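Researcher: Sequence recovery benchmark, item below. Answer with residues only.
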């Protein structure tokens, strides 16, 4: 999880071991974490500064609790995290001096790695994590008996897992991967990332399949070659523009999919999508597109679609609703 409220929601649904892979900042968020710990949660969060360590130590000492923390190792120009090994070691010594804090591991995130050869850079970063963690272990700075070493977003998890395996981490640490988008995958940036994973790891044979779609209806056909659909930035993520997948005729009890070949979203407003239609759309399977047609769209990426909906529907091949799932974002 990324936030204290997300951890609280997970705990309320039965999850007892919680890794908040983010800095715990602000007394309101600290109060949520403290209440989770008091309720029996095995809670971990991330630190990367002396100032945050001091804040956490004061708060949890006053509550009579001990907080398990992981130091974040970042990279120059990246997101959060200590920028080099010396910073990590100095911060670990500071944590070691605070009775209210338990150094329980090392955390990183390689999704901000870029450059001409990102694969090589990701592996180098993963090895840096391993070496820093081993240095902390060697200096007896981990108080936790089974320290965590965690990284991996949804694009490079095979490389991170490979380095962790090569390093034989299981003998000293608990390696944890965090590719969150595996739950539903997507039709955009992570689909491309999955193709690259399969190219690197042909033994996997089959990859993840996208499982999240947003349905919307054609509102208007104001001019030839243009459809306006009732779906916008309020409804679907737009790291990349949504992808039309198929359409249905409203009232068709057999839910027969109709073609959207050549359809292309060109613009997304708050609640409207501009969809360019191919020439000769009248000849497409199922006939000419009509106002009211229902169109299924794929999103990129899934996390930013989840948080736009109070409920998600699990459907079968006939689009019959099998389960309604409530979101907590």
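Model:
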């Amino acid at each position: 999880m990324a936030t204290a409220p997300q951890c609280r929601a997970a705990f309320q649904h039965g999850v007892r071991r919680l890794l908040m892979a983010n800095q715990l900042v602000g007394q309101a968020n600290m109060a949520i974490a403290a209440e989770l710990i008091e309720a029996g949660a095995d809670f971990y969060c991330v630190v990367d500064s002396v100032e945050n360590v001091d804040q956490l130590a004061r708060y949890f000492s006053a509550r009579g609790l001990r907080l398990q923390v992981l130091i974040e190792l970042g990279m120059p120009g990246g997101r959060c995290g200590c920028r080099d090994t010396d910073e990590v070691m100095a911060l670990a010594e500071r944590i070691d001096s605070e009775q209210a804090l338990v150094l329980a591991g090392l955390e990183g995130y390689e999704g901000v790695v870029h450059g001409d050869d990102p694969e090589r850079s990701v592996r180098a970063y993963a090895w840096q994590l391993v070496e820093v963690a081993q240095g902390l272990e060697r200096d007896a700075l981990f108080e936790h008996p089974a320290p965590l070493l965690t990284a991996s977003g949804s694009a490079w998890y095979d490389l991170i897992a490979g380095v962790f395996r090569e390093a034989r981490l299981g003998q000293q640490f608990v390696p944890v991967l965090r590719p969150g988008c595996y739950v539903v995958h997507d039709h955009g940036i992570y689909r491309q990332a999955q193709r690259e994973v399969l190219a690197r790891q042909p033994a996997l044979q089959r990859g993840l399949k996208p499982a999240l779609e947003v349905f919307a209806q054609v509102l208007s056909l104001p001019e030839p070659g243009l459809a306006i659909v009732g779906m916008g930035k309020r409804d679907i993520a737009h790291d990349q523009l949504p992808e039309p997948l198929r359409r249905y005729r409203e009232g068709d009890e057999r839910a027969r999919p109709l073609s959207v070949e050549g359809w292309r979203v060109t613009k997304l407003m708050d609640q409207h999508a501009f969809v360019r239609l191919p020439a000769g759309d009248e000849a497409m399977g199922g006939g000419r597109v009509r106002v009211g047609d229902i169109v299924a769209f794929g999103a990129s990426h899934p996390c930013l679609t989840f948080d736009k909906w109070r409920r998600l529907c699990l459907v079968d091949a006939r689009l019959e609703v099998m389960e309604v799932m409530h979101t907590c974002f």
